[in-house]
Every structure is written in structure tokens, then in C-alpha cells.
Write a structure and sequence with these properties.
Elements: H1 9-23, H2 28-44, H3 46-62, H4 67-73, H5 77-92, E1 100-105, E2 111-118, E3 121-126, H6 131-142, E4 146-150, H7 156-172, E5 180-182, H8 189-195, E6 203-207, H9 210-219, E7 232-236, H10 242-254, E8 263-269, H11 270-286, E9 290-293, H12 295-303, E10 310-312, E11 326-332, H13 335-345, E12 350-354, H14 358-367, E13 372-375, E14 395-396, E15 404-405, E16 412-419
Parallel strand pairs: 3-4, 3-6, 4-5, 7-8, 7-12, 8-11, 9-10, 9-11, 12-13
Antiparallel strand pairs: 1-2, 2-16, 14-15
Helix pairs in contact: 2-5, 2-7, 3-7, 5-6, 10-11
Length: 426
């Protein structure tokens, strides 16, 4: 572990507030220049970043981190190139700052509009994914927000290297380094201090497990955007194309199992379960996915599991975000039962139905109130980049301000603009 540094959050907050005021007045061209500089610097410093990442990974293995968590920590050439490409994609997106949301003229002649403005200073507390450092920095810069970041201790070296990349890019375009700051000391007391820095920080976004979200909700004196916890479901109804369903289930579970939009629980209608679940088992066995099944699903899979690892579902298994090659499986008699299960166990992140019955699809979409609801598509699409937002600062599962992938518009608020002709109130 690198040497710990002293951190003065008051100074960081003051500097972020000052930098945010400057960012708020930048033209779109100036902000895009910063993003392009970050992309270029990422590519130029890729070897340096990966060398620091290798040290973090070595420490993680020595400390017994799981393979799924190590995968979240990993930055390889393809992922760094992907981060640079994401930054360039954000350049191509419309700048929401300054846009009018709506406008009208009142009967007395006053002209009213709402205009998008930056939130100000965003504090982000996240755990084991260093790509978040670049995602947040680029989205915040594009929207004129300053950011104070606090990543997990598992990726301290990597994140420090990435922030150095960002600072080098900001220097190239004559923007203050304080626009993106990083708390490079893993002392947990600093998290509590950040949560009460309401004089300078306007919004807190936690990205991590349930305990982190609970900590932020309980201790923060700053508005908190919560999300990023999955327990994602797919329901296969009796009309589904079973062959195509297998492809979607496989993609949702194994394409990247360590992330919040990966599939956790598969619900299968009883009318197709006897035929379909053995096919699921064959696919999952080939991808080394363990199945945790209950009731009739367990009986079918134990009888005809095609070599898949099958275990009885424990009392907490349907309330677990696996982030690993494990899949909960349950047979349901009706769509009513499927929806009831989802409403009971979902964290309202990503849930979907596989069906050829449009009435079932419409009903599912109407009754399941997750941040993203899917019909005949993988839950892995609940992502800012996949939704055309360029990247995301988080996937919000709450219902106020923002919901689903938080891209550029979700990092803005608005102000009312009132234009008068020397009006006075009567």
C-alpha cells in the first residue's frame, strides 16, 4: 500500500467550489477540449496506469479478493481504450447546460423559462471499479460540475494514476486541477467528513454495496442519489421463444457477472419449465455457472441438470446480488407470481420479461417499477453507454431527481429565468 497522505477536506471543498464556478461559465468547445485531452492522455499513459493497476491487483490477490472483484479492479489495454472511446463519445453528445427545458408567456406578458445549469460540486464515493474515475470526471466536466472522488482502498494506486492523467489533461487546456479532486487516503473517517461537507458539496453519489448506501443515507447532510445495487430478474413466460431466451439469459448472466446489471434470478413459467430448465442447465454448465434452485425448479434440475452444479436455494439466496457465476432459479405458476416475486425481492434496478405475448409484455412493463424494465432483451443494457448517454455516473434506483443511468442531463438542475418589460407585481 502506498504511503498515506494528509487530507484537508475543507480546502478541497473550497477549491472545488471555486473550480465549479469557472466550469459553469465554459463554452461547450472548451469542455469538449478537456474531454479530448483526457482521452489522449489516457492512451499516452496507458502503460503507467496499468503498472499501478497491476500492483493493486497483486495486493488484492494476496488479500484473498474473489475473482469477480478482481475483474472489477482490472484495467487492461482494451478497457483503457474503451474509457478513451467513452470520453470521445461524450464529446459528440449535446451539451445540456444552458438549454431551455420549456418556456411560456404569462397573461401579464412575463416570459418564463427553465434553463439547465450545473449542480455545482458532486461528491462520489465508490468501491472497486477504477473506470468510475474517468466516467465521473468526463461527465462532470461536460456538464460544468466539479467533483471530489473517493474510491476504494483496493484501487488506490490505480485511481491516483488516473487522476494524474486527468490533471495533466486539464493543465493542457488551462483548466484548474481542482475541478476533479481525489481523496488519496483510505481512512474511512474521511468518508463521514465528506458526507457533512454541505457548505461546498451539492450532491453525494455512492457506488457500492448496501452498507455504503445505508451509511450515506444515515450520515449525509447533503442530498444522496442511491442505486447501483442489483438483484436483477428475468421472467420466461409460456409464450417465449425458448432458444432466443437461452441467448439472453446467458448474456445477462455471464457477459460480465461482476456488475450490478448482471442477472441474479431466473423465473420460469411452470408450463415450459420441464422442457426449458434442462436447456438452461446445459448452457450454464458450459459457462461454469452454479444454479441455486427452489421447489419444482430444484426437482427438475436435479433430475435433468446436464452436469450443471445445482444446489438448494438458501433462505437469503433470492435476496442476494451475486456478482459471480451463480444464478437463482425458481418456477412460478403465473405471471402474477412472477411479478409478486420481483416486487418482493428486486432492488428496482433491472428486471425483464421474455415473451411473445404483447399483452404480457405491456402488463409487465406497467406493473414492474424498476429503473429499467426490459422486454426480450438482456439486463446488461441498463448502462449509460448502451443507452446512448456516453457513460454514466451511476444507475439510480430512487425515484427523485434521477432514475436509471445518470448521464449528462441528470448531472444538471435548472433555474427559472423571468424576462419582464419593467413589470411590477400588483
Amino acid at each position: 500500500m502506498p504511503e498515506m497522505k494528509s487530507v484537508n477536506l475543507e480546502e478541497m471543498g473550497r477549491a472545488a467550489r471555486a473550480a465549479g464556478r469557472k466550469l459553469a461559465t465554459l463554452t461547450t468547445e472548451a469542455k469538449n477540449a478537456a474531454l479530448l485531452a483526457i482521452a489522449d492522455e489516457l492512451e499516452a499513459q496507458a502503460e503507467v496506469v496499468m503498472a499501478q493497476n497491476a500492483l493493486d491487483l497483486a495486493d488484492g490477490r494476496a488479500n484473498g479478493l474473489s475473482e469477480s472483484l478482481l475483474d472489477r479492479l482490472l484495467l487492461n489495454p482494451a478497457r483503457i481504450q474503451g474509457l478513451a472511446a467513452d470520453a470521445r463519445r461524450i464529446v459528440a453528445l449535446p451539451d445540456p447546460v444552458g438549454a431551455e427545458i420549456d418556456g411560456r408567456v404569462l397573461p401579464n406578458g412575463l416570459r418564463l423559462s427553465r434553463r439547465r445549469i450545473p449542480i455545482g460540486v458532486v461528491g462520489v464515493i465508490y468501491e472497486a471499479r477504477p473506470n468510475v474515475t474517468i466516467d465521473i470526471a468526463t461527465l462532470c466536466l461536460k456538464t460544468g460540475n466539479a467533483a471530489i472522488l473517493r474510491g476504494g482502498k483496493e484501487t488506490l494506486r490505480t485511481n491516483v494514476a488516473l487522476v494524474q492523467v486527468i490533471h495533466a489533461a486539464l493543465e493542457r487546456v488551462n483548466l484548474p486541477a481542482a475541478a476533479i479532486q481525489y481523496i488519496d487516503n483510505p481512512d474511512r473517517a474521511l468518508v463521514s467528513q465528506l458526507l457533512r461537507l454541505d457548505q461546498y458539496v451539492d450532491m453525494i453519489i455512492p457506488r457500492g454495496g448496501a452498507s455504503l448506501h445505508r451509511l450515506c443515507r444515515e450520515q449525509s447532510s447533503i442530498p444522496v442519489i442511491t442505486g447501483g445495487i442489483g438483484i436483477c430478474h428475468l421472467y420466461v413466460d409460456e409464450s417465449a421463444d425458448l432458444e432466443k431466451s437461452l441467448d439472453i439469459i446467458e448474456n445477462a448472466k455471464v457477459q460480465r457477472p461482476s456488475v450490478c446489471n448482471a442477472l441474479d434470478t431466473l423465473l420460469v413459467n411452470r408450463r415450459v419449465a420441464d422442457d426449458f430448465l434442462p436447456q438452461v442447465a446445459r448452457r450454464m454448465a458450459a459457462r461454469k455457472v452454479e444454479l441455486r434452485a427452489a421447489g419444482p425448479a430444484l426437482e427438475i434440475l436435479q433430475r435433468d441438470g446436464h452436469g450443471a452444479t445445482v444446489a438448494p436455494a438458501g433462505p437469503e439466496d433470492f435476496d442476494t446480488e451475486w456478482m459471480a457465476l451463480i444464478l437463482g432459479v425458481k418456477v412460478v405458476d403465473t405471471m402474477d407470481e412472477a411479478i409478486e416475486h420481483i416486487q418482493q425481492h428486486s432492488q428496482e434496478h433491472s428486471d425483464g420479461i421474455l415473451t411473445n405475448d404483447w399483452r404480457n409484455a405491456v402488463r409487465f412493463v406497467n406493473e414492474v417499477n424498476s429503473s429499467a424494465v426490459f422486454v426480450n432483451a438482456s439486463t446488461r443494457f441498463n448502462d449509460g453507454g448502451q443507452f446512448g448517454l456516453g457513460a454514466e455516473v451511476a444507475v439510480s434506483t430512487q425515484k427523485l431527481h434521477a432514475r436509471g443511468p445518470m448521464g449528462l442531463e441528470e448531472l444538471t438542475t435548472y433555474k427559472w429565468v423571468c424576462l419582464g418589460d419593467w413589470h411590477v407585481r400588483k
